[in-house]
């Protein structure tokens, strides 16, 4: 099994968006419908969701006009309104505004060995009714930079890598400062980092320049550097690897100042169990083999940390979580290695190189 792929032929943002929207029209519509259902179950009506989408589009236009143009192009190609595509891009912000909570989510490991390229892997957990949302998208910028991203249909970027030797992993966070006054979507911060940054410092500067309303952590990796850039309305902090070159992140803040407003401490305590699991398996996570790194993450609840999640079908859709993908960055090649599903399903033959 593999995720669908699309390679853009256009470099102009609006034209690139229209081509993407046209090609993935059905998937984008299905993704929007899936999020509309999720928001409704969590208590948000259609009028409120539209207002949030329009507010997000305004914030995007102020902070990244080219991204607003691309969203308009996607909408034109997919037969939607721009605010509807903005809703897909701002789903993290809308969920924070609704104050929806749950027990799933992602785990990330980055190891910078003394010799050789960075060794990375993450699980991507999300709601099981959205398992058909992911796509792999390659596009080229006017600058000549090529970006490859694992994202959702209609979303400008998520986890990704560039031929300039920079990659990003992505985990959601929750903070007391999260607000319903929608700001720049965190997925668009990831997009600008992929498009513009060459260093961890440049990526951190991009993150600091955005007014956000929801929290996340974007772990940025280059050949010799890495940092987990924790983003919230209360501020931005960059967490470096330890002296051993190991950088781990789950779904709680590691910066001491931002951790004072942590929301997962009582709502998603499994994040701490997952972090301890990663710490206990650093040796496996440090290996050169992608398959072995994924298997080092393997753990199921209730016997252990719920790194590999499977949905409880007795729960409403907003409380069902599944590990939909396992992903590593191949920085020297500028490629992603993606497995559809969780670590418990990984074999040498299941990796998709993109």
From TrEMBL:
It comes from the Bacteria. Residues 160-338 form the Peptidase C45 hydrolase domain. Pfam families: AAT. This is Peptidase C45. Gene3D superfamilies: 1.10.10.2120, Penicillin V Acylase, Chain A.
């Amino acid at each position: 099994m593999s995720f669908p792929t699309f390679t853009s032929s256009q470099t102009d943002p609006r034209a690139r968006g229209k081509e993407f929207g046209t090609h993935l029209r059905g998937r984008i519509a299905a993704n929007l419908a899936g999020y509309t259902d999720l928001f409704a179950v969590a208590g948000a009506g259609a009028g409120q969701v539209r207002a949030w989408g329009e507010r997000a589009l305004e914030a995007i236009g102020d902070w990244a006009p080219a991204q607003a143009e691309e969203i308009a192009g996607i909408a034109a190609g997919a037969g939607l309104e721009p605010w509807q595509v903005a809703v897909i891009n701002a789903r993290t912000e809308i969920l924070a505004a609704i104050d929806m909570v749950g027990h799933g989510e992602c785990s990330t490991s980055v190891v910078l060995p003394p010799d050789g390229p960075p060794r990375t892997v993450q699980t991507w957990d999300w709601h099981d009714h959205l398992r058909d949302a992911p796509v792999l998208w390659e596009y080229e910028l006017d600058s000549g930079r090529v970006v490859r991203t694992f994202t959702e249909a209609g979303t400008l970027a998520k986890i990704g890598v560039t031929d300039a030797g920079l990659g990003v992993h992505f985990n959601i966070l929750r903070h007391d400062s999260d607000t319903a006054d929608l700001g720049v979507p965190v997925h668009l911060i990831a997009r600008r980092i992929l498009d513009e940054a060459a260093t961890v410092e440049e990526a951190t500067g991009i993150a600091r320049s955005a007014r956000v309303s929801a929290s996340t952590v974007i772990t940025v990796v280059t050949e010799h550097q890495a940092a987990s850039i924790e983003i919230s309305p209360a501020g931005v902090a960059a967490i470096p690897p330890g002296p051993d070159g190991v950088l781990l992140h789950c779904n709680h803040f590691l910066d001491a100042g931002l951790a004072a407003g942590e929301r997962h401490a009582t709502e998603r305590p499994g994040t701490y169990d997952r972090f301890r699991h990663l710490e206990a398996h650093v040796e496996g996570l440090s290996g050169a083999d992608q398959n072995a790194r994924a298997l080092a993450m393997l753990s199921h609840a209730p016997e252990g940390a719920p790194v590999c999640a499977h949905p409880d079908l007795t729960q409403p859709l907003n409380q069902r979580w599944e590990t939909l993908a396992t992903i590593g960055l191949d920085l020297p090649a500028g490629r992603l290695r993606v497995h559809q599903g969780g670590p418990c399903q990984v074999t040498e033959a299941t990796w998709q190189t993109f």
